[in-house]
Hints:
Collagenase (Catalytic Domain), 5 domains, globular, disordered N terminus, MetalloPept_cat_dom_sf, signal, metallopeptidase activity
Amino acid sequence: MKIAAVVLALAGFALAQSDSDNRPYELLIHKDGPVCSFVSLQKSQIHKDLLSNPNGRISWKTRVPTGENSASDVHHVLSYDKDLLDAHAESLCPLGIGRDLRTSLDIHRYAGSQQVFKQFEHADHDPPSLKYPPLDIEALGDTGPSSNRVDLVFFADGYTTGERDKFFSDAKRLAEDLSSNQTFYTVKPLLNFWGAFTPSKESGIGVGGKPKDTAFGLYRDGPELRGVLANKSDAALAGCASLGDGCDYAIVLGNDPLYGGIGGEYTSITASEANGPLVLRHELGHSIIDVGEEYDGGYAYFGVNAAPSTPSIGWSHWLSDPDAANGPVRAERSVMPLQAYPWTMMKAYEPWKVKFNSSGTYARHLIKFSLSGIPEAKDLDILLDGKHLKWSPKPGIGIDRWHYDIYNDIPLSDGTHEVQFVLKNSDRTTAQLCSVEVLEFGDEKEFVNDPSYYGAFPTFDLDNKTTYRPTYNSCLMRMVTSPDFCSVCLEGLWLSLLARVDLIDSVSASCVPPSWGPDWTRSISLDLLPLAQFREDGQSGKDRGEAYAVTWRKGGVVLEVHANKTALAVPDSAAPGVYTAEVEFMTDEVRKDEKGRLKASKVFVLDHTDSCAAKAARGEL
Ligand SMILES: *[C@@H]1O[C@H](CO)[C@@H](O)[C@H](O)[C@H]1NC(C)=O
Ligand SMILES: *[C@@H]1O[C@H](CO)[C@@H](O)[C@H](O)[C@H]1NC(C)=O
Ligand SMILES: *[C@@H]1O[C@H](CO)[C@@H](O)[C@H](O)[C@H]1NC(C)=O
Ligand SMILES: *[C@@H]1O[C@H](CO)[C@@H](O)[C@H](O)[C@H]1NC(C)=O
Ligand SMILES: *[C@@H]1O[C@H](CO)[C@@H](O)[C@H](O)[C@H]1NC(C)=O
C-alpha cells in the first residue's frame, strides 16, 4: 500500500481513481496546558515530504491566539498509518480527550454548487461529539478537486436566514479581492474558495465582551475596534473538520462593517470593506506561508522573510545587489526611537502625548499611526514638537480603522521630542488611537527605500530586538495596507502550497479504435494544474516566465517525440512497458526550489493483458 502511494500501477482504465489512496491521515490537536480541547483525525491531502518517506510521519506545532492574551498549542501530525496517529493522540492527551471528532464521516463530494451536510452523529460509547452547525455550501468561483487543492472556507457568523445572500456576496467580494488580480492571484489555480452558510438567530456580532446568539458567537471585547473573538471557537474548528479535505483553512466572517479580526488556527474577520481583505490577507500569509510578522512591535519573527542576523538571511537569491550575495550583506540603516500601542479611546481636547529621544544622526524620519472613529481631518490635530503634521483620513473610511504614514525627508535633532494627538470634536465618541511609531532612516546611500530593492532591513520587535526582512515596505506582512506579498514571501507561498498540491491532477488512459490496419492506439493523458498555458483566464503567465516542461520515458529512455505533450499515444501492440511522466513547472516567482516542489512524476505500467486488443476481445470496449 505504501508503494502504491508513489507508484501508480496502470490497471486499464481504473487509474484515475486509485489516486485517492495517495492521501494520508491528518491528526489535529488543540492543547490548552495539559488538556486537549479539540482533536480530529481524518483523511487529508498529500504532503510531499510524506511521499518520499511513506512509513514516517511529519508533524508541526504552532501556537495560536485564542484571545487577546491567551494562546493554545496546535499540533498537526500526518501519516499513512492511522494507528500511529491514534497512539500519538493518546500520548499527547494523557488526560483523555474531552471532545473528540474522529471523523469517519461520509463526506459528500461537492456535486453541483450547493450541498447541505449532515450533522455528525456519534456512537454512544464515544466521547461526547462536537456539534457544528449545518452548512450550506457554495463555491465562490471556479474550483478544482478538493483532494488536490488548498481549500479556504468562509463560515458565516451573525448573518440571519434573510441575510444569506449578503453573506455570499460579502464572502465573494473578499475572495475576489484576494485573488482576482492581486495577493493570491498567481497561485489561485491551487486554491478553492467556498462559502459555508449557517443562519444565525441574531444579526451582527457582539460587543463589550457579550456574544450574540450567532453561529460562532463572534464578539468584541470592549467597545473599541480591535480583536474579534469567538465564543464558540470549537464549532468553527469542527465545521472545518467536518468537510474533510474540503476545508484546509477556516475563515469565520462576522457580519459587521468595521475593523476586527484575529488570526490563529482559523482566522476571524469582519465584512469591513476596508479592513476585511487587509486582515484576511495578512492572517492567511501567517498560516499558509508559515511566516511571522514583518511589522515592528510584534513578538514572532520567523519563516522565509525573517533572519536573526544579516549573515543568516535565507533570501540571498533575491538580493538586488548581486555582490552582496557573496559578501557580507549590509543592514539598511534605521532605528525605531518610539513605539506605542495605546489602543485608547480619545477624549476631546485631552491630548494623548508621548516623548521619545533621537540621536540626531539619521537623515530622515517617519511617523506611523493607526486610528479609528475619525472620519474628517479637522477632527484631529497631530503635533510633533508643537508643529502641526499634515494628516487626512483615507477617503471613504468613515469611522473604520486605517493606517497612516507621515514621511519627512529631514533629520530629527539630537534630544527629546514629543508627539501629540488631539481630538477636536466631542461628537466623535468612538475615536480611538490604536498605534504610534517613529522610525528614523539613514540617507539614500545608507537606506534604500525603493520598493523593488531587496536587501536586509531591520525590524524591531516588542522589546526592540532586531531581526531582518527583505524589503522596506513591499510586503503586506509589514505594510498591512499593501495588497501584495514581496517576492520572498510569494516564493514561500508557492513552495508551501505545492507541498500539499500535486502538479498532476489526474492521469487517464483510453483506447482509440484502429482507423486502418489492425492496431488500436493506446493513449495516456495528464491533467495538469491549470497554470502556464492551461490557465483558465486566458492569461498564460508568460510575462512571469510560467511554463510546463513534460518528459515522457519508457523503460527509462526519453521519448523525444512526446516532449512537452500532455498526452502520449502509442500503438497498442508496442505499448507494454514501464512509463514515466515527469512534469516541471517554471515561474519567475520561484528562484530556489530545494525540495523539488515544482516537480511531479507518475510511473505506470502497461501490460499485455490490459491491451486494447485484449479488452476488445473480452468485449470490454
Ligand atoms: C484590482 O482590481 C481592483 C478592483 O477591481 C482595483 O481597484 C485594483 O486597482 C486592481 N489592482 C491591480 C493591481 O490591478
Ligand atoms: C461563551 O459565552 C457564554 C455566555 O456569555 C459564557 O458563559 C462562556 O464562558 C463563553 N465561552 C467562551 C469560550 O468564551
Ligand atoms: C531601540 O534601540 C535603539 C538602539 O539602542 C534606540 O536608539 C531606540 O531608542 C530604542 N527604541 C525604543 C522604542 O526603545
Ligand atoms: C531621553 O534622554 C534623557 C537624557 O538621557 C532621559 O533622561 C530621558 O528619560 C529620555 N527620554 C525617553 C522618553 O526615553
Ligand atoms: C519544453 O518546454 C520547456 C518550457 O517551455 C522548454 O524549456 C523546453 O526546451 C521544451 N523542451 C523541448 C524538448 O522542446
